[in-house]
Automatic annotation (TrEMBL):
Domain FAS1-like dehydratase: 8-135
Annotated InterPro entries: FAS1-like_DH_region (IPR039569), HadA-like (IPR016709), HotDog_dom_sf (IPR029069)
Pfam families in the record: FAS1_DH_region
Source organism, top-level taxon: Bacteria
Phylogenetic lineage: Bacteria, Bacillati, Bacillota, Bacilli, Bacillales
CDD domains attached to this UniProt entry: R_hydratase_like
The protein, known as: MaoC family dehydratase N-terminal domain-containing protein
Organism (species): Thermoactinomyces mirandus
């Protein structure tokens, strides 16, 4: 797979997928990351905070379904997770519904000690039922042609 083949998918976005934010899933996620903050698990405690209810840890959005880019499929073997960052416009609340989508935002190439690397920059977005953006996450995935694969 070469750079221009990937570039043909820049700007392509998935159909938004409905995700229900369950308080049990928030608690399990907080347990898994070792975060005992009661804002993630104790309703009585959460009611007394400025949020008024249980919220999700910042990286909880990684558990959502974002759908698939139409016509785009990259084998996961050989891919390297390069970087990730999140921008939140408000917390994610237990009990709400978010619609999440992903978009290939950019593609670029670099050469390193191990050869040619193609960087795929994904933008993942979550919106609430009113259509307001709750968060945007960006991730860089490194594709090495000799290890990964592409299936159009």
């Amino acid at each position: 797979m070469n750079l221009s083949q990937f570039q043909a998918f820049v700007g392509v976005e998935s159909t938004p997928v409905k995700n229900e934010v369950e308080k049990g899933a928030i608690r399990k996620f907080a347990d898994a990351i070792g975060d005992s903050n009661p804002i993630y698990r104790d309703e009585e405690y959460a009611k007394k905070t400025r949020y008024g209810k249980i919220i999700a840890p910042p990286t909880f959005s990684r558990t959502f379904d974002y759908g698939e880019l139409p016509g785009f499929s990259v084998k996961r073997d050989g891919l390297i997770h390069g970087e990730q960052h999140f921008e939140y416009f408000r917390p994610i609340y237990a009990g709400e519904v978010l619609y999440c989508s992903t978009r290939l935002a950019d593609v670029y190439e670099k050469k390193g000690k191990l050869g040619r690397m193609i960087f795929l920059v994904y933008e993942q977005k979550g919106t609430d039922e009113e259509g307001k953006t709750v968060f945007i996450a960006w991730s860089n995935v490194i594709y090495r042609a000799q290890e990964g694969g592409f299936r159009p």
